From TrEMBL:
Native source species: Agrococcus casei LMG 22410
Protein name: DUF58 domain-containing protein
Top-level taxon of origin: Bacteria
Residue span(s) of domain DUF58: 30-201
Record lineage: Bacteria, Bacillati, Actinomycetota, Actinomycetes, Micrococcales
Signal peptide location: none
Length: 285
């Protein structure tokens, strides 16, 4: 797997993993005919002696991505996912896999985490120890007694504070996309490349006789079993979930934002692979 950048580099430390430019850099790429304005020191005199025209060397210049994670650390992320596993473990694994891929390519990764009360920022780094600190921060901040989520506020603050063009991964609870959030995503997408990762909610309905009890994260109240076993409520629940997912996917797709949904730890890597492939093949708006 790899993280693909669609936009061309415009600043020294931004751009694709490698981009050809004129002049000296790291790795030799090829030769081309000398043109007025080229540096004389870049002429390959041996190759020129074998040719009828002056030839200069071209090199591949290494570039770094700025990889930024925006992680929802509100109370909802302390619930369980579709698989019955903790959502925060899936979020941690997703961030860990992507951060590891990025640092293996020489990129630097940073992270914003937040809920409705405060936002924290982890500055950029490129080591495995740095990734470990990021993941431990996510683990510590997602708790049942944490404040609720406020993705609109988190995205607003990131859009204001994030200067350099970056590849942004948003890791969110399985939420609906309202108009204010839609506006902030568009604002981020205008300057950065944005990818969205939803951590799928658990099925609240009791579809099997052995279904375990379910408690609401907000308030800790158990959802009555007779409600969870109602066929009519199950139908309404399924339709509501499908509608929410479709609205989110449609709005993000219209903006050119690649999106993926992860429901289990075992499904994390396959889901990330599909997301990165979708992003790689997408046409940049």
């Amino acid at each position: 797997m790899g993280i693909h950048a669609h936009r061309k580099t415009i600043e020294l430390l931004e751009g694709e993993y490698s981009s050809i430019h004129h002049g000296r850099s790291h790795d030799f790429d090829d030769l081309r005919e000398y043109a007025p304005g080229d540096e004389v020191k870049d002429i390959d005199w041996k190759a020129t002696a074998r040719s009828t025209v002056p030839l200069i060397k071209r090199y591949i210049a290494s570039r770094q991505h700025n990889i930024v994670f925006i992680v929802d650390t509100g109370r909802g992320m302390a619930a369980v996912a579709e698989s019955g596993e903790p959502k925060k473990e899936i979020a941690i694994q997703a961030v860990g896999v992507l951060a590891y891929l990025a640092t293996r390519h020489g990129d630097r990764v940073s992270m914003f985490t937040g809920d409705e009360e405060h936002i924290d920022f982890t500055p950029a780094g490129g080591s495995e120890a740095h990734i470990e600190r990021m993941l431990r921060a996510v683990d510590a901040r997602i708790q049942l007694d944490a404040p609720g989520s406020d993705m609109e506020h988190l995205l607003t603050q990131v859009a204001r504070r994030l200067g350099h063009r970056s590849i942004v991964f948003i890791v969110s609870d399985d939420i609906a996309l309202d108009r204010d959030m839609d506006k902030q995503i568009a604002r981020l997408h205008a300057r950065h490349e944005v990818l969205w990762i939803s951590v799928g909610d658990a099925d609240l309905m009791a579809r099997q006789l052995s279904a375990p009890p379910v408690w609401a994260v907000d308030g800790g109240v158990e959802i009555p079993e007779y409600l969870r076993r109602s066929r009519g409520l199950q139908t309404v629940f399924d339709e509501g979930v499908a509608q929410r997912h479709e609205i989110l996917a449609t709005r993000l797709r219209k903006k050119g934002v690649s999106a993926g949904r992860i429901g289990s730890l075992d499904g994390t890597v396959p889901a990330l692979f599909r997301l990165l492939e979708r992003h790689r093949r997408a046409r940049r708006s």
